[in-house]
UniProtKB/TrEMBL annotation:
Annotated family: Belongs to the UPF0045 family.
Thiamine-binding protein domain mapped to chain residues: 6-96
Superkingdom, taxonomy of origin: Bacteria
Protein name (record): Thiamine-binding protein
Entries under Pfam families matching the protein: Thiamine_BP
InterPro entries: MTH1187/YkoF-like (IPR029756), Thiamine_BP (IPR002767), UPF0045_domain (IPR051614)
Record's GO cellular component terms: cytosol
Length: 97
């Protein structure tokens, strides 16, 4: 089970005004490499797991944007936590599937 869901929309300022999609793809690759459960949505990606671990993933995503030459980056983040360790993407969206 997980104690948190963290959604992020990452909006990098690209080095030369390029399309942001390849940079967003690189940010999602950071999530994939972290091995956490996640779902990509059209405007944000949601991760499920231990809050501390997920916050470290956010840090790595922002660092990746700097490595790719982005002079700045905005990360819009939403966090959902539960004391009983039962934060679940599937539970929150089951009635819509």
């Amino acid at each position: 089970m997980a104690n948190a869901l963290v959604s992020i929309q990452i909006i990098p300022k690209t080095p030369n005004g390029e399309d942001v999609i390849p940079f967003v793809d690189a940010a999602i690759e950071v999530i994939q490499a972290a091995g956490v459960d996640y779902k990509v949505g059209p405007l944000e990606t949601t991760m499920e797991g231990d809050l501390h671990e997920l916050l470290l993933v956010l840090e790595k995503m922002n660092q990746r944007m700097l490595e790719l030459g982005c002079p700045s980056n905005i990360s819009q983040v939403k966090i959902y936590t539960r004391a009983d360790d039962k934060a679940s993407m599937d539970d929150l969206t089951a009635k819509y599937d």
